[in-house]
Amino acid sequence: MTLTIDSLAGSLSGYLASDQVNSVRRAYFYAEQAHDGQFRRSGEPYVTHPLAVANILSEMHMDHQSLMAAMLHDVIEDTGVSKSAVKSQFGETVADMVDGVSKLNKITFSSHAEAQAENFQKMALAMARDLRVILVKLADRLHNMRTLDVLSPEKRRRIAKETLDIYSPIAARLGMNAVRVEFEELGFEALFPMRARRINAAVKAIRGNRKEIVKQVQSAIEACLEREGLPGRTIGREKHLYSIYEKMRTKRKSFSEIMDVYAFRIVVDSVDTCYRVLGAVHNLFKPVPGRFKDYIAIPKANGYQSLHTTLFGMHGVPIEIQIRTEEMEAMANNGIAAHWLYKSSDDTPSNAHIRARQWVNGLLEMQQNAGNSLEFIENVKIDLFPDEIYVFTPKGRIMELPAGSTAVDFAYAVHTDVGNSCVACRISRRLAPLSEPLESGQTVEIITTPGAQPNPAWLSFVVTGKARSNIRHYLKNQRESESIALGRRLLNKSLAGHGTQLEKLNAEQVQELLQQLNVSELNTLLSDIGLGNRMAHIVAQKMFPEETREIPKATSKDAKQASLAIRGSEGMVMSYAKCCYPIPGDPIVGHISSGRGMVIHTETCNNIAEIRQNPEKVVSVRWDPDVEGEFAVEIRVELENERGIIAKLATAITSKEANIERISTVERDARFSIVNLLLNVRNRIHLARVMKHVRLIKPVTRVARVKSRKLAKPIKGNIAPEALKRQH
Ligand code: MN
User: Fold this and answer.
1) Which of 258, 287, 498, 632 has minimal Cβ neighbours within 10 Å of its Cβ?
2) pTM
3) How many Å lie between the centroid of ligand 1 and the Cα of residue 344?
4) Which of 59, 74, 78, 182 is catalytic?
């Protein structure tokens, strides 16, 4: 009998409400129209395929939305219909599912590495937020496998291999045994037609011999159950070809060894009966020691439950027995799909996810009741609601990363050098910020530059330990070399007061100095000076003890020559005070702070006044004419309250190319507010332009720069966060 929408609707009305059956019908007619003029390889109209896919799902008693998605699953990909069109016709949930199936179709399993297969399975699961997408995809694949004959041998083999590598393990993970077995049978036949034929012939040849034994054992079991008053049905099982092949291949057993085993399944009404049947068959035939497995108390990872035992039957033939309830039987065949039949008809998109969760929770409960290790359920949870994401390298390799990972994590996962020199990234061919969290299925391309170096700001968004430790390590080394450079500059400045320079000293003089100071290497000394652990002028003094101690007081006249020029690119041993936020154009002073290098203040900063009492800690500095970068500065805006005023303020500031780093409302009454903003600007001229622009906003009554703020602990604060503020 050929399948039609009417015959499908007929069987659907057996378990779905009539309005649900109608919406499935509607989806069918929509698909028929959309695929009009398209045909399958076999010559049939294309719509027969989605209809068959829906039919497979109906046999699992899947809900109406899954069936609708099945009807429409190729519409977005193969016809001109857009996702939004599907959404307006059939609602968001169905549209999302159709879109999900299309996305799965787009990732092709290109790599031949076996290790990739498992990641690929996980990725498929991770990508489908609604697990029903996977079920539709499995049904789609199942129908394609059933109609493989019409394809070329090469294409047939490729699809068969992909099915065995990817889709049958997914079906197994989800406990859908019936689908898995069919995938394996069809896949085996298409991939290894000769081997399949040989095994099939061998099975047929010995079936005659086995028949008599099967009959004897079966009636012995049935009689035994009858005698004991235990209701149940006994089914003789034959192994499927692929599992025979796999057993021969992996367990290195001969064909006759495998086929000498006789297998039966006893399906009963309750869990209690399961154990009583077990007792009965153990009385009937002697059990093989060590072969009993209680998967009722300890279900398998995919929720499979059953009792397994092996017996010595008559004439010593081994008999494998599975005992389970009808419910467990349904679960073993359909797995997660067995849990998808529900009565509610609400269409909210989150419900599917909630139900999938319930499925997992159901397993969890089962496990807790059994009082066993939860380890197995953790595996299921990880697979279905992953904490991992799977992304592609441009060459198609799959990388596994923790959820929330960014392109920087990806770069370090590829190679430390790639991470250290990365400057930008493309996510699925689009330029994206390095801080953007990645999603499963994306292709990530890292753009590197030879001279680039890690940005301390990355530490605020990377999630992998590898990225974090590598950035820290790099910055530590970087800080070391920067402190040596600063130390050299400071020491030379002090030596200039004695009319010399470090480069002019000979090796003996340097060696003598190091010995005097009890330092092993010149770099250690310079780094100590740069970090503020040693005073440069005291070191210089040691070299020229005969000269009177004199701290050169910088007069305005010679300040220009004596002062250090700040270029804005000094890095981590130089930072900018958070009390006065100096920017280029401000008169500035450097403060050597023990262990933290040099902190730059404005000359008018309240905090520097205190420090000036300790003159050897103060270094005269000035901005280099070529200073570059952006500098934090704080402004205070007084304004009348008005709807959307903060947004207006922000727009005015960013339109003048100044970044807003922090915004806080300081005071507020019914009419007026004071807003404090931390901005990044290039210099005083830039700041003036920004402030002028802000002043033009109507409700703004006053704009002023915050000159010097009393910090709770003046001049404390450490280098790393200061460095974080810098925008390079
Ligand atoms: Mn399809």
Assistant:
1) 498
2) 0.54
3) 28
4) 78
